[in-house]
C-alpha cells in the first residue's frame, strides 16, 4: 500500500447539490473542475476511487411527486439527472489527464457503460476513476443508499460522504450556535437521534455490514486527502 494511506479503496458520495455551487442548482463547471482536481489528487496518491453521484441539483423525485407526479416516473427523472452529473464529472477528470469511466445502473450504452460489478472492480484495479450513475436503477431509493450498496459490492473500506458542513452536529449548526460536532458516533445513535446525515436505509445497510462512514466537508481544500490518510476530520460513523 502507498505510504501513509489509511484507505486504499474508497467510495465517495457527492450530492448533486455540490455541483450547483452556491445556487445548489444546475451545474457550475468551475465547481465540478475543483471536485475533479480533488479526485485526481487521490488517484495520484494511489487510491482506488469510486464515486456515486447524486442528482438533486437537477431533479429530486420526492419533490416532483409531492407536486402530483407519479413517483416512479419522478424517480426515473432523478436517476437520469445523476447520469448528466456523472458525464460532467468524467469530462472534468479526463481533462486533468486521468482515465475515468461512467457506469450506469440504467442502461444507455451510447453514453456510458452498464454497471457490472466485476467490471467496476477491474476499472478500479486499472487505476480509472469510476463514476457510478443512475442510482440503484430502482425508484424509491436514494443515491446515499446506492453509495452504501456499491461500497459493499466493490469492497470499499470506507464510505466518504461529502456534505456542505464539516461533520454531524447535535443540531443544525447554521441555525443553532450551540450545536456541537461529533468526532465519532455509532450508527445506532445516528438513527436514534434522527440525525439528518443519510437516509435510514443507507445507515442501516452500513450498520449491518460494519462499513464505516466519514461525513466531511468536500469544499474545504485538502479534506479528501486528509480523509484517506485517516486524519481526524469530520465525523466518523462506526460500530459502537
Ligand atoms: N433515485 C432513485 N433511485 C436511486 C437513486 C436515486 O429513484 O437508487 C432518484 C430519486 O428521485 C432521487 C434522485 O434520483 O431524488 C436524485 O438522487 P438523490 O436525491 O439521492 O441525489 P442527491 O441528494 O445526492 O443530490
Model description:
There is one protein chain. The chain has a 9-stranded mixed β-sheet, with helices on both faces. By secondary structure, it is an alpha/beta fold. The protein starts with 8 loop residues before the first strand and ends with a strand. The longest helix has 25 residues, at 71-95. The protein is built from 9 helices and 9 strands. The protein has helices at 16-19, 29-44, 61-66, 71-95, 117-125, 143-153, 187-192, 200-208, 223-228, and strands spanning 9-14, 48-53, 100-104, 113-114, 129-133, 158-163, 184-186, 213-217, 235-238. Helix 2 (29-44) packs across helix 4 and helix 6 packs parallel to helix 8 (200-208). It is globular, with a radius of gyration of 17 Å. The model has no long low-confidence stretch (mean pLDDT 95). Uridine-5'-diphosphate is lined by residues 15-17, 54-56, 60-62, 74-75, 78-79, 81-82, 135-136, 138-139, 141-144, 146.
Provide a compact summary of the structure:
The chain is α/β, with parallel strands linked by helices and 240 residues long. The protein contains nine helices and nine strands.
| Percent helix | 25-40%
Strand order of the largest sheet: 4-3-5-2-1-6-8-9-7
Q: Shape, please?
A: globular
Bound molecules: uridine-5'-diphosphate
* Number of DSSP strand runs: 9
**Reported CATH architecture:** 3-Layer(aba) Sandwich
CATH topology: Carbamate kinase
Overall SS class? alpha/beta
Strand content: 15-25%
Mean pLDDT: 95
Order of helices and strands: EHHEHHEEHEHEEHHEHE
> Which CATH first-tier class would you pick?
Alpha Beta
Unreliable parts: none
CATH superfamily: Acetylglutamate kinase-like
Radius of gyration: 17 Å
How many domains in all?
1
N-end to C-end Cα span? 28 Å
Number of helices: 9
Largest sheet: 9 strands, mixed
